[in-house]
What we know:
The complex is a heterodimer.
Chain A: H1 15-18, E1 26-30, E2 42-48, E3 51-58, H2 66-72, H3 79-83, H4 90-105, H5 111-139, H6 145-165, E4 174-175, E5 178-179, H7 185-209, H8 213-219, H9 227-232, H10 238-242, H11 249-252, H12 273-297, E6 318-325, E7 330-337, E8 345-349, H13 351-355, H14 359-363, H15 368-378, H16 382-386
Antiparallel strand pairs in A: 1-2, 2-3, 4-5, 6-7, 7-8
Helix pairs in contact in A: 4-5, 5-6, 5-12, 5-15, 6-7, 7-12, 12-15
Chain B: H1 7-15, H2 23-32, H3 44-53, E1 76-80, H4 88-97, E2 103-107, H5 108-113, E3 135-137, H6 144-159, E4 184-185, E5 190-191
Parallel strand pairs in B: 1-2, 2-3
Antiparallel strand pairs in B: 4-5
Amino acid sequence: MSATGFHELEGAPPKAMNARIEGDLMEVSMGPQHPSTHGVFRMNVALDGEVVRKLKPVFGYLHRNHEKIGENTSYLGSMPYTDRLDYFCSMTNNWAYALSVEKLAGIEVPERAEYLRVILAELTRLQNHVSLLGFLLSDMGAWGTPLMYAFREREKILDLFESLSGSRMMCDYMRFGGCRVDAGPDWFARAQKIIDAFPRFLDEFEELIVSNEILIARTQNVGKLSAELAINAGITGPMLRASGVNYDLRKVDGYGIYPRFKFRIPLGDHGDCYDRLMLRALEMRESLGILNQAMKEIPAGPIMNPKVKVRAFKPPIGEAYGRIEGPKGELGFYLISDGGASPYRYRVRPPSFINLTVLEDLCLGHTVADVMVILGSVDIVMGEVDR
Amino acid sequence: MSDQIDEGLRSELQKRGVWVTSTQELYNWGRKNSIWPLQFGLACCAIEMIATAASRYDLARFGGEVFRPSPRQADLMIVAGTVTKKMAPQIVRLYNQMPDPKYVISMGACAISGGPFKQGYNVLKGIDRYIPVDVYIPGCPPRPEALLHAFMELQRKIDGQKLTGQDKASHLDREQPSEFPVPAFGAHDLEPPSNPNIFRPPAIERA
């Protein structure tokens, strides 16, 4: 008898060594109450041991009838509801909605208001990406520290929002044809201070995470998204760019005054979780560049188009689709007006929801622990997914 | 039976270096300073809840930083966000799974009454229809300070709970239920629309 004992079975290959034990798949319902599902999201996962073989997302636990309410309220009345779509980025939601109404009614926006919008949208991008990184690391098991760092910075930006609009999260700041309140020199000085200090925080944060062995093991080659699938599935935002597709609405559409600013679009190579994570870190640096330019160039002047009647607002009959590059992807509002005080049809194109459609493709073949990392890197907010 | 210590005697003894307490005080002191909330967020308010637990506001100062993902280990449920009709049965089930004594903070306008989404066809008009709520916080969303205030109110409530006697805390009363029926979807809506043993809205008299 040999040492391994296999030579006894002369001729026949050693069967038990590499053969998988065939068994039934186990179905696990993850969520709606789960610490890492970013809200009330549920996934029905079929597991083979620890490996995901099927994944079925279940939506609707936060369906708040946003679109139906939008069709029953005035155009202005929908503005506070857009804050609650993606509750991290109320400013960009406001902008997307204001943009589509402006397109519908053909409203011009004063120069200063455009600059304010860019400044606030880029600040929103900063605080969204920074909290996403905190949550993602938290999902990976770095419980506490990165999230604390991220929220420390987020609070500073929320202070700016609060002093400008009166609310930390639900800003309700933009109006059709401008912005609601003007920012004084004091506000700009405070904002500049935060923007100047931000790169130091980014350096510190990147040093903490980028070369971390555990982070690399958990994210590299996990949840790869090919450029082809990304385009076919309508993925937008950082997730698409991490797969190497150069598509950013700030460049493609050039809405607002974005063509005036010099900035680069970071792109990923592999489309895995690590690329998606790092892309956000790089995007934050570009946002800081835009912010610095906008803060320098902002002109004096009115912030509201005086011709717009914000109350009793009735746009002409027609339809319009306004879209912007939100922190999570292409956020669009499609409005059909029948000439009345409320839209005939009000439709949101939510980036989180459409980016979530490829979740099964990303997760197949990975372990159940990776599902949380992949879901975190998609960057979803349930308010926007379920609406 | 008197469960109160004579305050004059207590301060007199304290001056001589003797610290006197009753079992009830000690028990409540321990309970109120280690409230473990259930890590459970529904919508926008959940982000403010996380902000409360994070660096600036630091819920740990009040002994409440230990967010437990499992209801079996939690003392407090913070209903943070819009409760939809699809989610309401799960919330009642989570509440039923929590061990006694358990408390509920209803955070934000949505959890109280449906808030801005009250007219929506899928929104439950207040979680107090199915589970008893201890503290309500208005706001959309409430600021982290408001959640801290609610936390302190809850601590005050726990501090005042009696362990014995007629007016003892409800979780010590065998007659009081600690689990409530889970609603289910009927033909049109959640059945039953509310739990009449808990939900007793004040009658509004219109002239």
